[in-house]
Amino acid sequence: MDLNLKDRVAVVTGGAAGIGEAIVRALAAEGCVVIVLDRDAAAAGKVAAALAESGHQAHPIACDIGVAAAVTNAFNQIANHTKRIHILVNAAGVLSTGPIADLPVTEWHRVSQVNLAGLLFCVKAAIPAMTGQGHGRIINIASVSAMRGGGSVGNTLYGTTKAGVVALTMGLARELGPSGITVNAIAPAIADTAMTNAALTTEARQKALARIPLGRLTSVSDIADLALFLASDRASFITGTTIPVDGGILTT
Ligand SMILES: NC(=O)c1ccc[n+]([C@@H]2O[C@H](COP(=O)([O-])OP(=O)(O)OC[C@H]3O[C@@H](n4cnc5c(N)ncnc54)[C@H](O)[C@@H]3O)[C@@H](O)[C@H]2O)c1
């Protein structure tokens, strides 16, 4: 299927590692100009340099999305450089685990500042370019924990922020549809990345695996494949939805 993504400008937050990096690589392979936006400047630089070396168009931007002024500054830099933004993938996120009763209230601020506020800052910063073009694709990385109120690693607080992402996705789709912008979310189950590797014990991983009808964890390419489709004009009539990529875990 030709996705017609050549020369589209795509900003991927959290693009220096894990799911975001897989999406960056997939978009670059389709011919997009990719902006690897991440708070880890060194890692973003490395991903962009490796892509540029293999002939792709990739640029790193260091930015902590939880800081509104930093996001404004980063998107101003992007606007000066590319003039256009066709695709925004909001993949930057942080995990929190453990019983709510044991968590300091500061943990709510830390996690929601990135997963909810930071995502919203990036959307707001991308809207002017997208409405100017009359075209845009926003793809938010939520989580199946949004539908379950947390999941197998005791992540009630995290799941709550991701449920906010699902609600934001619907509301933004309604607001931005008339400007030619679609907004969708992808809800992965457990994927093998630094985020989950740090949080999952071998026992928790085995327990989660036992509940997945398709018998394996989500791979980052499962998520990148769907992101490519949602970023393309092939998905031009899909908006406001959250699509699980979970091997069927939500059925169990
Ligand atoms: N890994 C999973 O099992 C899983 C499952 C469901 C949803 N998700 C979601 O997918 C997204 C990516 O997760 P991952 O597993 O690839 O994580 P990861 O930790 O492997 O990578 C996250 C990247 O985001 C960057 N980042 C974190 N906070 C940032 C901030 N404030 N500003 C800019 N960059 C920031 C990190 O530096 C890192 O490069 C997250 O939103 C996560 O909640 C992950």
Written account of the structure:
By secondary structure, the protein is an alpha/beta fold. The chain has a single domain, classed as NAD(P)-binding Rossmann-like Domain (Rossmann fold, 3-Layer(aba) Sandwich), CATH 3.40.50.720. It has helices spanning 18-29, 41-53, 68-82, 105-133, 145-148, 156-176, 194-199, 202-210, 220-231, and strands at 9-13, 33-38, 57-62, 87-90, 136-141, 181-188, 242-245. It has a 7-stranded parallel beta sheet, with helices on both faces. Strand 4 (87-90), helix 4 and strand 5 (136-141) form a beta-alpha-beta unit. The protein is globular and about 45 Å long. The two termini are 32 Å apart. It binds nicotinamide-adenine-dinucleotide.
The CATH C-level name is Alpha Beta
Major β-sheet profile: 7 strands, parallel
Strand proportion, as a percent range, falls in 15-25%
Q: What's the tally of helices?
A: 9
Mean pLDDT: 96
Question: What is the rounded Rg?
Answer: 17 Å
**Run of helices and strands:** EHEHEHEHEHHEHHHE
CATH-level-2 architecture:
3-Layer(aba) Sandwich
- The gross shape turns out to be globular
In quaternary terms, these chains amount to single chain
CATH homologous superfamily assignment: NAD(P)-binding Rossmann-like Domain
The number of distinct structural domains comes to 1
Ions, cofactors and other bound molecules: nicotinamide-adenine-dinucleotide
N/C terminus separation: 32 Å
Unreliable stretches covering 5 or more consecutive residues: none
Q: How helical, in percent, are the residues?
A: 40-55%
Strand order of the largest sheet: 3-2-1-4-5-6-7
Say what the CATH topology is.
Answer: Rossmann fold
